[in-house]
């Protein structure tokens, strides 16, 4: 009984998938003045397939967006989504997570 259990545990340890790196985008914008502005931005960004979470900091004018591996957000796409929400795009940075 111990041998099959040990074999199963060893198999699971070897077969555990390697988790790929997500990417976090830091988007800076003008016009994030209130909670309703933030909700509009959040709604627009969550339309993108692969977005895992959105974190908005009104006082900094910054939106953090975490996306799954392989999902790339372009400045043009983010600019258009922000404009739809009534916010002006300033700049964007991205960093892979590990």
If you had to describe this structure to a student in words, what would you say it looks like?
The protein is an alpha+beta fold and 98 residues long. The chain has a single domain (19-96), classed as 2-Layer Sandwich (Alpha-Beta Plaits), CATH 3.30.70.100. Helices cover 36% and strands 31% of the residues. The chain has 3 helices and 4 strands, in the order αβαββαβ. The protein has helices spanning 2-15, 35-45, 75-84; strands at 23-30, 51-57, 62-67, 88-96. Strands 2-3-1-4 form a 4-stranded antiparallel beta sheet, with helices on one face. Helix 2 packs across helix 3 (75-84). The longest helix is centred in the first third of the chain and has 14 residues, at 2-15. The chain is globular.
In short:
This protein is α+β, with helices and mostly antiparallel strands and 98 residues long. The chain has helices spanning 2-15, 35-45, 75-84, and strands spanning 23-30, 51-57, 62-67, 88-96.
Estimate what percentage of residues fall within beta strands.
25-35%
Main CATH class: Alpha Beta
Strand arrangement in the largest pleated sheet: 2-3-1-4
Count every helix, treating DSSP H or I runs of 4 or more residues as helices.
Answer: 3
Mass-distribution shape? globular
Number of beta-strand segments? 4
Identify low-pLDDT runs. 10-18
CATH topology: Alpha-Beta Plaits
CATH architecture: 2-Layer Sandwich
Could you describe the largest sheet, including whether it forms a barrel? 4 strands, antiparallel
Measured as a percent range, the helix fraction is: 25-40%
Distance between the termini: 38 Å
What is the N-to-C order of secondary-structure elements (H for helix, E for strand)?
A: HEHEEHE
Number of domains: 1
Q: Give the mean pLDDT.
A: 85
Structural class: alpha+beta
Q: What is the chains' assembly state?
A: single chain
């Amino acid at each position: 009984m111990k041998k099959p259990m040990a074999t199963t545990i060893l198999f699971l340890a070897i077969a555990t998938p390697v988790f790929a790196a997500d990417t976090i985008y830091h988007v800076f914008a003008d016009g994030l003045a209130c909670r309703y502005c933030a909700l509009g931005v959040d709604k627009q960004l969550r339309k993108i397939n692969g977005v895992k979470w959105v974190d908005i900091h009104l006082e900094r004018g910054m939106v953090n967006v975490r996306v799954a591996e392989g999902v790339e957000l372009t400045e043009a796409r983010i600019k258009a989504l922000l404009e739809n929400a009534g916010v002006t795009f300033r700049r964007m940075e991205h960093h892979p997570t590990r």
